[in-house]
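Appendix B. Extra example for self-study. Work through it before the problem class; the solution is given directly after the inputs so you can check yourself.
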Amino acid sequence: MPDPQRSESAIFFESLQSVLEKMAFMFADVVAENDFEDGEMNLLEATMEFKGPTSGKTVLAAQAELCTSLAENMLGIDEDEVNDSSLEDALREVLNMTSGLYLTNRWGDDVVFDLTVPEVRRIDEQEWRELAGREQSLAIDAEGFQMVASVII
Amino acid sequence: MYNILIVDDSKTIRAVINKTIEIAGVPVANIWEAANGQEALDILHEQWVDIVFADINMPVMTGIELVENMSEEGLLETVPVVIVSTEGSRQRIEDLRAKGVRAYLRKPFAPEALKEVIADILETKNA
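Solution. Structure tokens for the complete assembly:
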């Protein structure tokens, strides 16, 4: 896992923190990858690409339970009202906002980027571990749930 | 009482804006939702709308294309558009204003920011 002080990861994480706090009223911290609990997990991954003076990809992977909390908080609904579509959309939108904020925070507001529409898919634990093990990835604890954030340039 | 149109391909964001409008205490007659610019235009052709909140990046018809169509049809003169987007480029925001967009709200936004935008626009409308 990278040093969380690395510029890209740190800025991306700060942007994610801002989004989670403002839109979902949730707090997040970077943790060590080996602090992640093992066990069967229901996992989702959102990805999007950006193109401009620099191009790359941003990724957020999270436990489905975290996505459910995101949907509950952002939509103001109860857990039993959350369905697959709403929890996927919540994760998609968190990545969308985080990526936009990251690009401005990283390159300033004079630079123009094109962003793709985020895509969400279910992933298995092998894919989760591979993502978490990448040099550009950060392991995150958001209100007791696990998340992995990655910026690939 | 105002008629509001929210245009975003994300159900989550439409719900967030909807909830924020409610919290802001805006007197609302109707809130319509559209998942893209074409659906929004269809609603604008059928209903009187006082404010449009629109994202930029949407399938079928983008927010920018929606604004351009509204301008061509003369709708921008009477229906203010607020762009709600992750877009942060100063150039793009200036381009949007040049096309006739009334205000810009950057995601993520605090409820107070949305409330201020609504208050400014409705005050101007009623002046």
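Self-check: The radius of gyration of chain B is 13 Å. If your reasoning did not lead you there, revisit section 3.
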